[in-house]
Each structure stands twice: as structure tokens, then as C-alpha cells.
């Protein structure tokens, strides 16, 4: 189909973006062909009247776990046992794959046209990526890591990451990922909020630095970038010293850490969303223990301080909402942009640029998507209100286009109890 989008205001995804009127964006199949003045002959195009809405690039969520629903838990689950059960039979695997595909569709229908998965079930993420490309499933563009590499007792070991006992086992998992066709590699270097048993020690170093170094070197030889889960200053330092390309989450940095970011050319993926409920919710709501709440606050403040310091030092930052964690659903990435503005102090325009043009560039797909330009993919969304005035405009998406398909008035199933609690912090 050839579409002509008119009657709206264009936000192009660049750092200096401002609403532009009097223009028509035309597409042919899955590509933007041109942007022309209103009044241009539109013969042969299906005209889409935006009725004053705002047309912009689709959002890019840089930290996703597709297997999670975001449903709040009254107590911690045994994720390793659950995943083992899910993958135990052909039937349960089929049901689980359908669930993952449904969550990816929720991402798309909420305005996210590209996701970067950083830990998933078996090879589901690469399979789904290929199914979407082939038109067998509806969903966003996927940059997939499949299972992460962890260590025994490490973060997400046995669920969305494999526990490598030795460097050789870690390299074997890296090779397995290569055979599955992954797009990037994910390491679980430290623990997280729920792993810590004492106050003040979230993000304990779990993966030996020598394992980080060898895996990064081999991954780079294979042409992969390496993303790393780290939630402590020690973890950030070990990751950067040994070759990691992106720090996922982050922690309060010192001058040495900032130097390592610059020397390594690494970027930060800020994830405020998953830490906020543990840090700011009343424990009667979050069901967190006193230790978990205390450590959640340490991580929450560390992530924000890391983002602020990175931006001050011109270290690039992207956004991910660690979707799948409790209270973080597959359809509310817009909240991460809002928190980035509220807690880190950036403008609405910079938050939107971070989640579009900048993320595309740092994900290595800047020539394909992220901005509205002729020749790029027609990854488009429309909102009725102006997100530069209020990022909450992104909560309601009027239209989504991806892979050449136009989805009008896309709908997702909402978790009202989750939204009611999170809305208190808008």
C-alpha cells in the first residue's frame, strides 16, 4: 500500500525537533518515500487524515524481557523452576511462545516499533524476530539477545539467562547464541535488588572479571556488541574495564567510571521504571521487604545519578523500561520517557529524541529507523496531543505503522491496578 499522511504535525526524531505543519509524509510499502508540501498530487495514495495529530517515529525500547507480563507478585517466584516447567514439553513451549508473541504485539500497539531484548526464553526472541519479518506474526522490529549469560547464583540464572560455571561454558553459550542468529550478547555481571540479603549491597559482583573480558573479546570478534546488567559502582567498573559496550541500569558513578565510559565509547541504558516501585511504593503495595525497599532506593537513586552524570559528560544515554519486572507492563514504555524528564531533568523533546533518533543510532540501526526521512523504514506513530508539551500524550496512540502495515486505533489490554499505583508518580 501507498499512504499519504496529511493534516498533522511532524516531529522528525532529531535532537532539535519542533512540530512542522503543512507537510505530507508519503510511504510505499514499508518505506518513507518523501515528505512534500500539502497540495502535492496524491493520486495513487491512500490518504490518511491525521486531523491535527502528531506524526513521529515509533519509539525504541532498548531493554525488554518479552517473557514477563509485569504482574505484581505478593512474594518472589522460583523463576528457574517456572521456566523449566514452561520449556519441558512441546505444548507448554507452544503456549509460552504464543504468550511472548502477544507481548511483542502489545509493545507495537503501544507505539514501540523497535525493541532490544536482553534476556529471554530459549531461542524465542530470534524466532519471533524472524516470524515478524516474514509476516507470520505482528510485532515490532526486534534486536534479540535470546538467553543472557550469567553464573551460578547470578542474576536471572536458569530463567532468562544461562548459568555458566566456567569461561568455557560461557563461550559455549556465546556460540549457541551465534548459531541461533542473535543480534547482541547480554551478560549478567551483578545481582539486583532482589538478590541482596542486606541493606546497602544491591548489585553485588557475581561474574568474575576474567570471564567478562574473555566473553567480550570473543563476542567482538564475532561482530556482536555486549550489553551488561550492572547495579553497583563495582559492577559498572568491571564491565567497562573488560569490554562491555552498554551499561544496563547503572549506579552512582565516580570520575574513574565516567573516564572509562568515554575511553570505552560505551553508552548507558537508563531504566528508572523497575526500580521506582521498590523505592517509592508503600511496602503494603509493593510487597517488598524492608531490605528490598532500602536497596530499591539505592538502585533507583544510583540509576538517576548515573544518567545525570553521563549527560553532563556527553556520554550517550538511551532508555529501556526493563519490561517484565513487577509493575512494568509490555505497553507502558512511555512512562520511562516521563521519568527521564521528571527525575533526570531533561526536556520533553530530549526524552523523545533519546527514545527515537538517538536509540536507533546507538543500536546500530540509525540508517534504518529512528527519524522521519525519505528512504528510512516507515516506523510511525500518531498521538492526538503534543508529546513535546506533555509526554503523557504518548499514553494514547492513535495509529501505528510498522513493516508496511497500518494499525488504526490499536488496542492493548490494560492492568488497571498497576496503572492506578504508577499514576501516583506522574
From TrEMBL:
GO terms for molecular function: hydrolase activity, acting on carbon-nitrogen (but not peptide) bonds. Residues 54-405 form the Amidohydrolase-related domain. It holds the Pfam family Amidohydro_1. InterPro entries: Amidohydro-rel, Metal-dep_hydrolase_composite, Metal_Hydrolase, Metallo-dep_Hydrolase. This is Imidazolonepropionase. It comes from Vescimonas coprocola.
